[in-house]
Amino acid sequence: MTKCVIVTGGAGYIGSHACKALRAAGYEPVTFDNLSTGWEDAVKFGPFEKGDLLDRARLDEVFAKYNPVAVMHFAAFSQVGESMKDPAKYWRNNVIGSLTLIEAAVAAGCMNFVFSSTCATYGDQDNVVLDEESVQLPINSYGASKRAIEDILENFEQAFGLNSVIFRYFNVAGGDPEAEVGEFHQPETHLIPLMLDAIAGKRDALTIFGTDYVTPDGTCIRDYVHVCDLVDAHVLGLKWLEDGKGSRVFNLGTGKGFSVREVIDHSRAVTNMEVPYVEGDRRPGDCTKLVSGSERAIKELGWSPDRSNLTEMIGDAWKWHQTGHYEK
Ligand code: UDP
């Protein structure tokens, strides 16, 4: 019988790519999503169960129906800027919602949990390469909410033996090379899709958020990872748990950082079009530099982030941008 995996946020950007990867690996991905930011059109690789993380009865129903071997938990609000303005939204949905999901999983006897956390849990640690042992000092409510969920998972392991693989993502970019699914947020806040929209004339010039950071060109540095590499790591993490290897935290990044200006330069080269941009103020909550120490996932999971170069990430995002869209 095909093994089911509950994928919360399966109608979203990363979750939909994870469903495709799970399906390819022989699992049945069951999307659990309230469609607050996701797209029903993105649910293409397994069943859809509409529901909200805060609705325990609905969660219990779905666990009982599918008897999943694991949960992959992507559903979350994830905008740093918004989290600074509306922290309650982040604590309620991300933390209380995850707690409800974790309780439901344990009650159903589903003891394998793959969680999407973030490098934002590390905070602003000037010019340090961040590995899994680095201290976590989030500087925004989004990062704080994700760190709290990591703590909940640790406590549930101590109390009930819940096994979790926690992935701390750096900047996820790119899309399915076949453009079946892709990145489409409403509203969009991420650098690469905003830039592609600006290139295509679909919105005004990109604003560079801050040019006075202490970096070689004054703009923030991020470590970009291809969404297909990222979800491959999730399948490896799932197998790690199924093999009984126990709870573990892994960073998912490449160890190489690129500034906003470097991303703009690559986009110009990939699309062969000019990137209209203006220089603006810093965005509250942004860290100067976030670069992953990514050895652990490579060594222990056997992960190979081969597609995580800017040319491929921007190229695949551009392909999706030209062909793909979802309708509400
Ligand atoms: N950024 C920017 N202009 C934008 C959006 C983002 O200059 O319109 C910068 C942002 O300050 C950060 C980088 O691009 O340094 C990546 O931001 P994004 O929102 O894509 O991801 P985050 O790092 O916040 O997770």
How many runs of DSSP E, i.e. beta strands? Answer: 15
* Gyration radius, in Å: 19 Å
Task: Please mark out the parts with pLDDT under 50 across 5 or more consecutive residues, or reply none.
Answer: none
Query: Briefly, what CATH class of the largest domain?
Result: Alpha Beta
Task: Name the shape in a single word.
Answer: globular
Q: Kindly, what is the distance between the CA atoms of the first and last residues, rounded to a whole number of angstroms?
A: 33 Å
Class from helix and strand fractions: alpha/beta
Assigned CATH superfamily of the largest domain? NAD(P)-binding Rossmann-like Domain
Task: Examine the coordinates and then state which fold CATH places here, giving the name of the CATH topology of the largest domain.
Answer: Rossmann fold
Please state the average pLDDT score: 95
CATH architecture of the largest domain: 3-Layer(aba) Sandwich
Number of helices: 10
Main sheet record: 7 strands, parallel
Bound molecules: uridine-5'-diphosphate
Order of helices and strands: EHEEHEHHEEHEEHEEEHEEHEEHH
* Helix fraction bin: 25-40%
The order of strands across the largest sheet is 3-2-1-4-5-7-12
What is the oligomer described by this structure?
single chain
Number of domains: 2
**Strand coverage percent:** 15-25%
